[in-house]
User: Which sequence fits this backbone?
């Protein structure tokens, strides 16, 4: 009993420690000037990808549903955060404003998570995947035609063009359809990114090792049995899905505050982005949070480090997905693993829980 | 007053009459058996009692409360817990956590308290751990508490399902073929455990079984089902000696 | 008159969706998996015709035939290498693998042909039809597309009555039982992938003839939309694929014309969401429930 508690705690501790040590090393490298500007530019995106991978792993690994619209929630967080920052710039201290932008981005993304989750989570498997994909694309498309302006009379919205906002003479257009938002303050730093990674980890790991997390995982493992012991399927699915969405929203806010101009392109908020995050989750191990962090960092850094590999980046992603699945699931690979596993050879039983590492 | 009263329960799937005019009355603390050939509608009755299926007609009264047509989770909260013919455990969770999922509704704290690790989290989790270990001890599973449920041998998986069901503190426990796939030794041991649960927890139990030895050995009353209808009902001895039952079920 | 011509365009696009949807629907019915890579087989079909006609000057009809052969083989190979080993794996694993295959095809095409759009020369040599004194022009591509779609539907319906067709139905109902009755399950699933992928090649040619710009991503959106069509019509049903495809094509073209060209995709996906919420089994689909 006690052994198990300490085992989970120990595992979580290693994960936190890994992040903190990586942070300290990188900071030392930056201070000593031995990190190229290219690499420095990658630091914030790295944190963003890690948060995205962790949050998607909550949906895929813990809730057990494949979401292909994760980038949509990131998109919502990004535009919410950028919009808030543009509106309140100068009205309050930068630190407070950025903090509020993050909170707001997370809250709005969570709201959309619930809104979308209510219909989506009634579906199962392939249908759920395709509908989340559909929602992701809808969000991206709508952001591309959304215009919001502000004048003395308040906010104006339009889905057509700048003219139909009917702004007064003192009006400013904040969101310009396909041109997005420009001039968002660049507040995202590596330090804030790492803090957000740690907060994300804290939320997910603690959630998994609580009553709520157990209920979510019970639904994943056997929906009918979970219902039979009185677990509300809708409630816990929605809860996990919206927490996952809100964390993706935080990643979005960081993303928006790391760019001069924020636009909703297929590249950053489309289906391709959702798939890329999924690749991180799959390579790191579905349900394995530490694995997600390592995979996100590796797969982002490798193509940058090995010149020429960048052209093959997507090809590598594709192969990762196929090979990982075949390796984990095909009967031949199972046999091979059984024959070559040291643990089995010495007759040791696999006893560890998959949760919480 | 009886704990469970089922009146005129029936359900049709398309044109098929799966259960028809099913009546049963189970007294508090009774160990009641439901037997019958394959396809007689036994599991369908469990699914009706637990809200997996909605009955086409009839009434289900539990402890004076009408639970007909309620959702599965509400029926569980009202006091009905079950096991499944084809074992349904939370395979990727530990044995301990399987039971703790059963304790979910009886030991609440909020999600936020869980994430922020507020004092109530530690207090309630400790209660849950203690209670879960007590239950596991009853079924001799305490040494395997840290195993993944899927790594348990078959017989122990069946026991874990019963422990999980008991964790929801039901008034009525439904066991769907608890001895299926067990060897005679395991079956004997299981019979003792079921009797122990009945006595120690004062539990009312309705069980579906094929193993006549088990049924005859522990059930006080029996209902025999054939083609969705009640063939015979009453004290175990009388029912088992009923010629109709013998032709329909035992003899050929 | 413009409404009528939009409607005809919609039916033409819908016919392409219907042909693609058939492939999804048959595979989903029999292998119980969403073959995400199906849309990318369309793109491969387009590139085969493009390369054959532009590089070797092959007769267009011969090139189409070649494309059908290549895609058929590709479909069978994909099933054998990537999907068959996972037949008893979790649905999540299968879906992720299918996404991987889709990505693989796209990126192999990207490395071979580059990202720049290739301008595809239409293989259709049928003259356009002038109606109502030139007010309504129906292009040769449109005529060929609609006719091909109807011919394919009819042929497939007849095929389902033959022995291999019945074997497909049997496998989609119950793999184990079909096997016991002497149906070769593996061969039947291979055949389904072969037919679906062959049809995808034809759909690719028709699509590229009507919208003559070919990139490695050409197949991905039409593929997803055709899946929407298959779900709309009821997955596993041949007439369902036709109805779903046509309705979706018309909705897409009309919303492009009258609402917003940027929002047309959003509207199509909106339709999917509404259909799945109101009638998750689609217009002609069967209900599948889980046994407890």
Assistant:
């Amino acid at each position: 009993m006690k052994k198990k508690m300490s085992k989970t705690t120990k595992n979580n501790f290693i994960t936190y420690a890994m992040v903190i040590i990586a942070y300290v090393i990188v900071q030392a490298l930056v201070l000593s000037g031995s990190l190229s500007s290219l690499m420095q530019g990658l630091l914030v995106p790295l944190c963003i990808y890690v948060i995205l991978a962790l949050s998607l792993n909550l949906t895929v690994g813990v809730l057990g549903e494949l979401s292909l619209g994760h980038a949509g929630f990131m998109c919502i967080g990004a535009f919410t955060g950028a919009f808030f920052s543009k509106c309140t710039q100068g009205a309050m201290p930068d630190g407070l404003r950025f903090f509020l932008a993050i909170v707001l981005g997370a809250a709005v993304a969570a709201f959309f998570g619930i809104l979308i989750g209510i219909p989506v989570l009634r579906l199962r498997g392939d249908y759920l995947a395709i509908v989340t994909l559909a929602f992701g694309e809808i969000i991206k498309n709508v952001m591309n035609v959304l215009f919001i302006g502000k004048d003395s009379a308040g906010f104006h919205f339009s889905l057509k063009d700048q003219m139909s906002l009917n702004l007064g003479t003192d009006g400013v257009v904040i969101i310009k359809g396909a041109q997005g938002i420009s001039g968002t303050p660049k507040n995202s730093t590596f330090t804030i990114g790492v803090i957000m990674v740690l907060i994300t980890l804290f939320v997910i790991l603690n959630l998994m090792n609580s009553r709520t997390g157990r209920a979510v995982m019970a639904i994943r493992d056997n929906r009918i049995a979970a219902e039979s012991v009185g677990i509300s399927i809708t409630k816990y699915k929605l809860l996990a899905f919206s927490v996952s969405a809100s964390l993706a929203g935080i990643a979005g806010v960081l993303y928006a505050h790391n760019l001069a101009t924020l636009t909703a392109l297929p590249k950053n908020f489309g289906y391709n982005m959702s798939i890329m995050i999924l690749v991180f989750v799959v390579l790191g191990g579905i349900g394995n949070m530490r694995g997600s962090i390592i995979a996100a960092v590796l797969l982002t850094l490798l193509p940058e480090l090995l010149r020429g590999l960048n052209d093959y980046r997507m090809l590598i992603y594709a192969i990762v997905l196929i090979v990982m699945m075949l390796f984990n699931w095909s009967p031949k690979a199972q046999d091979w693993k059984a024959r070559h596993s040291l643990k089995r050879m010495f007759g040791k039983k696999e006893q560890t829980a998959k949760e919480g590492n | 007053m009886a704990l469970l009263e089922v009146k005129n329960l029936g359900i049709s799937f398309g044109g098929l009459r799966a259960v028809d005019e099913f009546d049963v009355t189970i007294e508090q603390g009774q160990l009641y058996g439901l037997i019958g050939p394959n396809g007689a509608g036994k599991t369908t009755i469990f699914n009706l009692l637990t809200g997996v299926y909605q009955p086409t007609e009839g009434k289900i009264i539990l402890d004076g409360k009408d639970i007909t047509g309620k959702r599965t989770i509400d029926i569980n909260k009202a006091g009905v817990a079950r096991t499944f013919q084809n074992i349904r455990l939370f395979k990727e969770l530990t044995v301990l956590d399987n039971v703790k999922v059963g304790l979910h509704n009886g030991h609440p704290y909020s999600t936020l308290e869980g994430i922020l690790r507020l004092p109530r989290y530690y207090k309630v989790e400790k209660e849950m751990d203690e209670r879960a270990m007590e239950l596991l001890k009853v079924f001799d599973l305490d040494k395997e508490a840290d195993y993944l449920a899927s790594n348990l041998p078959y017989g122990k998986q069946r026991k874990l399902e019963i422990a999980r069901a008991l964790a929801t503190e039901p008034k009525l426990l439904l066991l769907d073929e608890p001895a299926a796939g067990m060897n005679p030794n395991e079956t004997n041991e299981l019979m003792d455990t079921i009797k122990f649960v009945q006595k120690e927890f004062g539990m009312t139990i309705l069980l579906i079984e094929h193993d006549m030895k088990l049924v005859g050995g522990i059930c006080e009353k029996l209902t025999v089902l054939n083609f969705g209808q009640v063939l015979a009902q009453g004290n175990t001895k009388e029912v088992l000696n009923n010629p109709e039952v013998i032709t329909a079920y035992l003899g050929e | 008159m413009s409404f009528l011509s939009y409607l005809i365009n919609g039916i033409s696009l819908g016919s392409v969706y219907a042909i693609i949807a058939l492939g999804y629907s048959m595979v989903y019915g029999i292998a119980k998996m969403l073959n995400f890579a199906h849309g990318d087989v369309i793109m491969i079909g387009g590139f085969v015709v493009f390369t054959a006609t532009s590089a070797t000057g092959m007769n267009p009809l011969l090139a189409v035939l070649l494309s059908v052969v290549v895609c058929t083989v590709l479909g069978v190979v994909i099933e054998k290498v990537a999907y068959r080993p996972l037949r008893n794996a979790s649905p999540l694993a299968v879906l992720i693998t299918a996404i991987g295959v889709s990505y693989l095809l796209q990126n192999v095409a990207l490395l071979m042909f580059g990202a720049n759009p290739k301008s595809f020369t239409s293989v259709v040599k049928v003259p356009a039809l002038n109606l109502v004194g030139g007010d309504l022009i129906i292009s040769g591509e449109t005529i060929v597309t609609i006719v091909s779609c109807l011919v394919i539907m009819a042929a497939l319906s007849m095929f389902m009555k033959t022995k291999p067709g019945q074997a497909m139905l049997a496998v989609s109902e119950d793999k184990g039982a079909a096997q016991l009755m002497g149906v070769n399950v593996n061969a039947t699933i291979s055949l389904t992938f072969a037919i679906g992928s062959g049809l995808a090649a034809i759909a690719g040619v028709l699509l590229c003839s009507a919208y003559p710009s070919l990139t490695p991503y050409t197949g991905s959106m039409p593929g997803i939309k055709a899946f929407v069509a298959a779900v709309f019509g009821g997955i596993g049903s041949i007439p369902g694929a036709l109805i779903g495809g046509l309705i979706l094509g018309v909705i897409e073209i009309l919303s492009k014309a009258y609402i917003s060209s940027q929002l047309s995709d959003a509207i199509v996906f909106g339709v999917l969401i509404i259909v799945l919420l109101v009638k998750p089994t689609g217009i002609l689909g069967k209900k599948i429930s889980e046994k407890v």
User: Anything to note?
Assistant: Residues 14-219 of chain C form one domain.
